Amino acid sequence: MTMARSDGGVKSVQLAFDVLEAVAAAPGEVGVSELAALLGTTKGTVFRHLQTLVERGYVDQNAVSARYKLGTRS
Predict the structure, then answer these.
(1) Which residues lie below 8 Å from residue 34, measured CB to CB, with a gap of 6+?
(2) Close Cβ partners of 61 (under 8 Å, ≥ 6 residues apart)
(3) How high is the pLDDT of residue 57?
(4) Neighbours of 35 (CB within 10 A)
(5) The pLDDT of residue 3
(6) Are 73 and 58 in contact (CB under 8 A)?
(7) What architecture does CATH give domain 7-70?
(8) CA 63 to chain centre
(9) What is the enclosing helix (H) or strand (E) of 24?
């Protein structure tokens, strides 16, 4: 059985990895606006990907600054 994949799905996965790699490359915590500018996409798109990565433990969000860093699963 062959499964069809949409380009949108693949692009979404690629962007999720781009977000994760950008957080990993940051010297400290990084904000949504910085990531969006770096990746050439919208803050909303980056935020949604970050929320998923936070839920899965790959990224942590600082409760005070609302900035992001690598999580324990990374």
Answers:
(1) 26
(2) 50, 54, 67, 68
(3) 97
(4) 23
(5) 42
(6) yes
(7) Orthogonal Bundle (1.10)
(8) 17
(9) helix 7-25
DSSP assignment of 25-65 equals HSSS-B-HHHHHHHHTS-HHHHHHHHHHHHHTTSEEE-TTT
Q: Whole-model pTM? A: 0.86
* Per-10-residue mean pLDDT, the chain, length 74: 56 95 97 98 98 98 98 89
* Conformation bin of residue 24: beta by default, left when phi > 0, alpha when psi is -120 to 50: alpha
Reading the block at residue 15, the tokens are: 């962007």
Q: Domain coordinates of the chain in residue numbers?
A: 7-70
Give me the count of residues in the chain: 74
> For position 2, what pLDDT does the model report?
43
